Give the backbone structure.
Amino acid sequence: MSRLPDTIVAPATPSGTAAIAVVRVSGPEVARLWREIFGAETFVPRTAVHADYHDHTGALADDVLATFFQSPHSYTGEDSLEVSCHGNPFIVQKILEDLLARGCRMAGPGEFTQRAWLNGRMDLSQAEAVMDLIHARSERALAAAQQQLRGALGRRMAALTAALLGALARIEAYIDFPDEDLPPEDRGLVRAALEGVIRGTGQLLATTHYGGLLRDGIRTVIVGAPNAGKSSLLNRLVGHERAIVSPEPGTTRDFIEERIMAGPHWLRLTDTAGLNPAPAPLETLGMAKTLERAAAADLLLLVLDATRPTPPLPAELRALLRPATTLVVLNKADLLAPGVAPVPQLDDVGGALAAPQGRSKTAPLQLQNIPVSALTGAGIEELQTEIIRRAEAFRQDTGEELIAINARHAHALTQAKECLGEALEKLTANSPVELLASDLRGALDAFGEIAGKVDNEQMLDQLFAHFCIGK
């Protein structure tokens, strides 16, 4: 276990007035601090004690609840102390100043979690999950962070690493005893092992996009012609008047973004300028931003006026329409007479929704239509249900555990997969086993970056710098 020389302190709760606040201390001087502050030679670990907190001058700072956590059974793996005081920022500051005067040092961002990693309390992927847990904005993001904090990704990486080590051990045996090359049967075993590791690596890499959606939100962009009701739909989904609504077309000249919950998912919902077939100069600028946002969208809501024929759509937008990621929202359904179907059709107006370039000219896109009324709310529940279903489809199957890797994991896994692919090519070409072993060691090094078995101070500093103070 690493024993760091200094004792760190920081508030573990946000700044501001509250019922209570928590000040966290960790390091080798915690036992001394307990004796000095509370005048007790003995303490029961993990048991809250109600006591007066006297500063180093003897003045009463507050009456508090203090809990001692004895190494190694603490968050950091070191002796730790948590002081729960009244949530007056002035009281918190007085306690912090006193602990600093007694020899503590202010903790840096993420330093408590970094010490937990250094002391073997968690691997690096679990440390990252702490930050994901703090910032999770949806039920799915929270579930993924909890799974990772409980070691789901670490266990998957341990299994891949074990399989890779087995293959490497078999190869290195021939390096140590080079009298003969790998026999065919051993090459077959090594090939099977490498192919299995490559498949497992690919499965994890496939969760990269879903991981980004959980952390950043599903980019859901509302597009359509002017006056189709895009802003009204945004207001209905958001639940308040966020965008200006007017009978005059072209009210929205720039995009408006709001963040909403859709079941267990978090959406970044964007209303955009209308796509006018004959735009004015100012509308042209807005349309360019609309198409830019649509190109970056995870989910498109194409809003059409249910009482009018489908207008021509820009070729750039038609090329983005996909059945899996596009919903056609037929707005103003309340204006239709009972039993009258909405006017827009998939192949209306010279193929406005016909297949884009590269697809069959005879088969229109099979996009799902959902009649709604943004004015009355009719059909909105059905639309929300379908949005949730589409959001669920982004998840990649990784078994019972929900795994969604981040960009750092993806970079390491990509490096590992490249090394494994090169090793497989060398195995097929009967290359010298030394070259094969070098590629496998490169893959192992890349796997080690995910769990944290690395000596890369710059990467670690950057990772923990994104944590909040006190965590």
Summary: The first strand starts at residue 8 and ends at 11.
